[in-house]
Amino acid sequence: MGETLSVRDLRVAVEGKEILKGVTLEVAPGQVHAIMGPNGSGKSTLAYAIMGHPKYQVLSGEVSFGGRDLLALPPDARARAGVFLSFQYPSEIPGVSVANFLRRAYMAVRGVEVPVLQFFRLLQQKMRLLQMPISMAERYLNEGFSGGEKKRNEILQMAVLEPKIAVLDETDSGLDIDALRIVADGVNALRGPGLGVLIITHYQRILRHVQPDVVSVLMDGRIVETGGRELAEKLEEHGYDWIREEQALAA
């Protein structure tokens, strides 16, 4: 079974400016929790703070995973503990093949040496699961990749590393309809009782393919609304203005 990611009253600043102003949420094993919100609401800040990016200063609050204090761990230790972050803008690494990159990442997370042929059999298995061409493994990491290929490669990394919690930071950003469906199918193929998924997105469209168990709305650094799948549908139809109006009346 998996472990629960718990965020409690998290406040985070970037370059001296407070972005997250007391975020509280949980992602249970086997659960897909979607975070929605307009630009500048703090969604990506939440993702990077969970993973331990040094640019993001935690002012107060707690982030625990399976009862362990993630904030006390460096990013590599968080990865070894089973936390995975899919980047909104994956980097290109010329000269390093997808296969070599993933083998090094796999060994770093697992803490074991894995022979090349043994790892390549594992990689082939995961690529077949995600319906990816094996030839992609020999290409340089993200170099010349389309937006859809970059995002599919992020899902492949998730498949290979087998994390316990996956934070997907706007994985749907910039994807056309076909690429979105392929990426969503990959996420669905990896869903299971041992994996919790935190999907961060602007739009409801990926949630048509990856059905969330919980939907939370992040605005101005705070969770202002939480509900089920119907909340995402309401946001798609009405936007965020009705939430802003509710917040103004409650102030």
What Rg, in angstroms, do the CA atoms define? 18 Å
Residue fraction in strands: 25-35%
Averaged pLDDT: 91
Counting H and I runs of at least 4 residues, what is the number of helices? 8
What's the β-strand tally?
12
Sheet with most strands: strand arrangement? 6-9-10-3-11-12
CATH fold type:
Rossmann fold
Helix content: 25-40%
- In the CATH scheme, the class would be Alpha Beta
Q: What characteristic shape results from the CA principal axes?
A: globular
Main β sheet profile: 6 strands, mixed
Which structural class do you get from the secondary structure elements?
alpha/beta
How far is the first residue's CA from the last residue's CA? 42 Å
The CATH architecture assignment turns out to be: 3-Layer(aba) Sandwich
Tally of separate domains: 1
The CATH homologous superfamily is termed P-loop containing nucleotide triphosphate hydrolases
**pLDDT < 50 runs, ≥5 residues:** none
Q: What does this entry show, briefly?
A:
The protein is α/β, with parallel strands linked by helices and 251 residues long. The chain is 36% helix and 29% strand. The relative contact order is 0.19.
Descriptive report:
- The strands form 3 sheets. Strands 6-9-10-3-11-12 form a 6-stranded mixed beta sheet, sandwiched between helices. It has a 4-stranded antiparallel beta sheet with strand order 2-1-4-5.
- Strand 1 and strand 2 (17-27) form a beta hairpin.
- It is built from 8 helices and 12 strands.
- It is an alpha/beta fold and 251 residues long.
